[in-house]
Amino acid sequence: MVRKIRVKAVGDLKLKHPTAGAIRPEGSMWPADQFTMRRIRDGDIIVEKGDAAARPKAKPAAAPQS
User: Fold this and answer.
1) CA 20 to each of CA 4, 36, 40: distance values in angstroms, whole numbers, following the listed order
2) Longest dimension (CA), the chain
3) Residues 6 or more apart from 15 whose CB is under 8 A from it?
4) Which of 4, 21, 22, 25 has the maximum number of C-beta atoms within 10 A of its C-beta?
């Protein structure tokens, strides 16, 4: 399964992912592939902060000591 991230275009750019389609003004879910990462590095799109897939996973809590 391909990991997806929620991205949003910077400004009024009209972008289209080769497999995921056009980006909507409110943001879209795009695969975290080479095309998407390049657009992020170039500053064409940003990762929306509320995206759970973009957050680091929490470490499991240690078992209680008895």
Assistant:
1) 10, 10, 16
2) 59
3) 9, 22, 23, 39, 44, 45
4) 4
Residue-wise pLDDT tens digits, 2-52: 899 999 999 988 999 999 999 999 999 999 999 999 999 999 999 998 655
Q: Which DSSP string do the residues of 5-36 spell out, in sequence order?
A: EEEEESTT---EETTTEEPPTT-EEEE-SHHH
Q: Please say whether the beta carbons of 19 and 11 come within 8 A.
A: no
Global pTM reads: 0.70
The CB density around residue 30, as the number of other CB atoms within 10 Å, is 23
Cβ–Cβ < 8 Å for 57, 33: no
